[in-house]
Structure formats: C-alpha cells, structure tokens
C-alpha cells in the first residue's frame, strides 16, 4: 500500500519594509499593516525599533543589527535567514531603516529571495537622505540655490576601491561646482577624507556643511560648519553615527529665514 501525499506545506513570503529614519510615526500605513501580519520580523538596528514592542505576541523577532565596524550577522546570512523562514511557511518582514533601495542592500535581499523562489514584496520607506535634513530645516533643493541632489555612501572611504578618496567624480563635482547638494549617508567616519578630497579638487573652503545626528528622534542634533573645518568641528562636538551629512549652499544657516525676509520685502511689508 502506497502512502498518500502529506499535507501541503504553507508557502511563505517576504515583505521588505522601509521603516523610515527612526520615528515610529514616520512608518507608512502599509508598513504598519505588514508588521502586524508578520510571523517573523528580521530587524535592523536603525529605523523605528520601538515598534517591535508593539508587535503581536506570537511574532518572532530576529535581531541582525549592525554597528559601525561590527557586523555580527553578515549580509549573506541575513539573506539566508529570510529564505529559510519563508520556505518554512512564515510571512517574514524584513524591517530596515530608511528605504530598502537607498543604500540599504535591499536589492541583494530581493535577489536572494527570487533565486530561491520566495515571493517578495517591497514596501518603500521614508529615506533618511531626504527626511533627516528636512526635519532639521534643510531643504535639499531650493529655488535660486540648487535644483538637484546626489546621495552617496561614506562607507567606501579607505577601501581598495577608493584610492583617491571616498567621493567619485560626480559627487566631487557637486561640491566643487555647486551643481547639486551632496548628501552623505554613513559618512561620519569618512568626513575627514571627504573634506580633504573636496578641497584638493578645488571646492570652496567656505562651502556650508550640516551634519544631522539621530534624525527624527529625541536625540536629534544639528552641527554646522564650513567645509574646511567640518571634520574638526564634528570631532570637537563628538558627532556620532547615525548621521546624515549635507554639503552645499542649502546647508547654510539662515537660508530659509533670509528667503522669508526677501519675500516680505518684495511684498512691501
């Protein structure tokens, strides 16, 4: 007598959720719904980690958080965890800070799921590259100042791929020529190299720089300096990650106040 087939195993799936810059109320409604429907949440250190305490009691939380210079769970293992739990039938939510596809390695995680035949959905998040400067009163574009911005990672500083410095020519031109605002994520450790490379390329030493730490949280702090002194000022103030570095004229103190005064003057007020 031949045994019949066993019960069909439930097919799992992965939802890649962008959690935003840190404040829970910057989560999107779709992100919140995904978290509430999760069986397993694989969570980063950054993003709205307070939300983990509000998950249904049955949800298993897997911490894969990284700190600068310390990656206890390498990216390859994170990819494997997503696939393993999904193949076991779980709805896996990968909770990431910011947006999964903005320097978040989300593309690698989607590719790993696709290669294993695991259905995957991406829920966009509010990227810290835009949100954190905005929360500090810094517009990345401003009429009469600049109409574009360029986002880079500061992690490449000191790597074999960055022999001449952490910035590529496009990023350098933003700073040197003022063609666009330069936004550097994960750039605190490489700030000195960024400054040195920019000055060597001919950037104006007086170019405004703003550094926003812990954006959207109670610990948010803004540091401003000229390009030539930015690394020294940041060190003196004890600037730490996570932080977003903004380089360009939109980072100047009083930019928006000055615009308001010009409008009032033009209106004859």
UniProtKB/TrEMBL annotation:
Any Gene Ontology biological process: siroheme biosynthetic process
Keywords attached to this entry: Methyltransferase, Porphyrin biosynthesis, S-adenosyl-L-methionine, Transferase
GO MF annotations in UniProt: uroporphyrin-III C-methyltransferase activity
InterPro entries linked to this entry: 4pyrrol_Mease, 4pyrrol_Methylase_sf, 4pyrrole_Mease_sub1, 4pyrrole_Mease_sub2, CobA/CysG_C, Siro_Cobalamin_biosynth
CDD domains the record matches: SUMT
Signal peptide: none
Top-level EC class as recorded in UniProt: transferase
Domain Tetrapyrrole methylase: 13-230
EC number: 2.1.1.107
SUPFAM superfamilies in alphabetical order: Tetrapyrrole methylase
Highest taxon listed in the record's lineage: Bacteria
NCBIfam families listed in its UniProt record: cobA_cysG_Cterm (TIGR01469), PRK06136.1 (NF004790)
Record-given protein name: uroporphyrinogen-III C-methyltransferase
Record organism: Promicromonospora citrea
